[in-house]
Write a structure and sequence with these properties.
The protein is mainly beta. The protein contains 4 helices and 21 strands. A hairpin with a 2-residue loop joins β10 and β11. This is DUF4185 domain-containing protein.
Length: about 400
């Protein structure tokens, strides 16, 4: 089931919060998401992929001169018709050196007849507004932990130019899917997928690494909430649940790019300097008001820009913070009202920035995972469970 990246116990306990946090939201903008009641490709309706296996016959592989508008991007996302991808949340992106974009999704709904019908993650590659799927092995998710009962939920992705193409790192939350229903799971730790993408070619997962050991402590740091490169260092952000808080605090680690799969080589920021012991890591953004479990950090125009729900998954605004260095100090640059609960059967969560997709308006493109509150509504029309694009002020 498609879901926000929080513990299900928190979702139940915080249901009463939703009405309060959405009271400040502006009316829902017209995202051109009105769709008919029946759609080819839902689990209940057999779909037929287009001959080109891209999003739609009318898509364009060429970028739009002068930049896109949000409505065009939402139409492209709503127009995807692929047998292995009918709906998915997260939608983190990494620009590739050949001009394409790699998209990484979490829980993914497939077409009728696919086995399994839902997988823990998926990937698409786009050129312009055309999308092509990246298939897993024998119906498995693309990022396969090969551990019974465990799943890899992607939280961040980063691409770096390499010989013959790109080297991509995806960090995911490793979760245990428990036996008490779809809503029952336990966060265990972080895993790293290293992916090679040849120029113009298909992404190939070359290595899966367990970064942190299994840890059932709900206060454990969720490393991999975001990634950004500065010089020879990869900066990896973590989120941590504080006692009595709904939102998370943000922490920072760093590692040499060539050592990223070796967690003992990581260093952790204690607020003043770097430490070898992860226990010394201290928040660079506090849990009050706090950030989401996963967010995005990019270097834009010489500054580091962090985008998250302000106040955690259930927050009423998209926050944009800026800093001169990857560790801060972070300054809140803008807030844009977008509540978690739309009060129309949909929820929105985990905003992620996409600065590589230029908007004609000059604003910053942000996607939010959007899902119906009932699984039946998702099966009726999978397009209801796809990310939606909005724009926020450029920092």
């Amino acid at each position: 089931m498609l879901r926000p990246r929080v513990r299900r116990t928190v979702l139940v306990l915080c249901a009463a919060v939703l009405a309060a946090v959405s009271a400040c939201a502006e009316p829902e903008p017209d995202l051109e998401l009105q769709v008919p009641g029946r759609v080819d490709g839902a689990l209940g309706v057999a779909g037929t992929p287009s001959p080109s296996s891209t999003a739609e016959a009318s898509c364009s592989t060429q970028p739009v001169a002068g930049g896109y508008d949000v409505a065009t991007l939402n139409r492209a996302m709503q127009g995807i018709s692929l047998p292995d991808w009918r709906a998915g949340d997260v939608g983190a992106t990494a620009p590739l050196s050949d001009g394409r974009l790699l998209w990484v999704f979490g829980d993914t709904l497939r077409a009728k007849g696919a086995q399994p019908g839902i997988v823990a993650n998926s990937m698409l590659v786009s050129s312009g507004t055309c999308f092509t799927p990246v298939a897993g092995s024998s119906g498995a998710p693309v990022l396969d932990l090969q551990r019974t009962g465990q799943a890899c939920w992607p939280t961040s992705v980063l691409a770096r130019k390499a010989m013959g193409g790109d080297s991509v790192s995806v960090i995911c939350s490793r979760v245990q899917q428990d036996h008490h229903g779809l809503l029952d799971f336990t966060y265990l730790g972080a895993s790293l997928a290293e992916i090679r993408v040849p120029v113009g070619g298909r992404p190939v997962v070359e290595h899966m690494t367990t970064l942190t050991p299994d840890n059932h402590d709900p206060r454990a740091v969720n490393w991999g909430a975001a990634q950004v490169v500065d010089g020879d260092w990869l900066y990896v952000y973590g989120s941590q649940q504080a006692p009595g808080q709904v939102a998370k605090s943000a922490l920072v680690a760093r590692v040499r790019l060539e050592q990223m799969r070796s967690f003992p080589a990581w260093q952790f920021y204690d607020g003043r300097q770097w430490q070898e012991d992860p226990g010394w890591a201290r928040p660079v953004l506090s849990a009050s008001p706090g950030v989401s479990q996963a967010f995005s950090v990019h270097r834009i125009d010489g500054r580091f820009v962090l985008v998250s729900k302000r106040g955690g998954e259930f927050g009423a605004t998209i926050g944009v913070w800026t800093a001169a260095s990857p560790v801060g100090p972070w300054t809140l640059a803008s807030e844009t009202p977008f509540a978690y609960d739309e009060h129309n059967g949909f929820v929105r969560y985990q905003p992620l920035a996409h600065p590589e997709i230029r908007l004609r308006s000059g604003n910053l493109l942000v996607s939010l995972s959007r899902n119906p509150t009932t699984f039946t509504n998702l099966l009726t029309d999978p397009r209801r469970g796809r990310p939606v694009f909005v724009e926020v002020p450029h920092p």
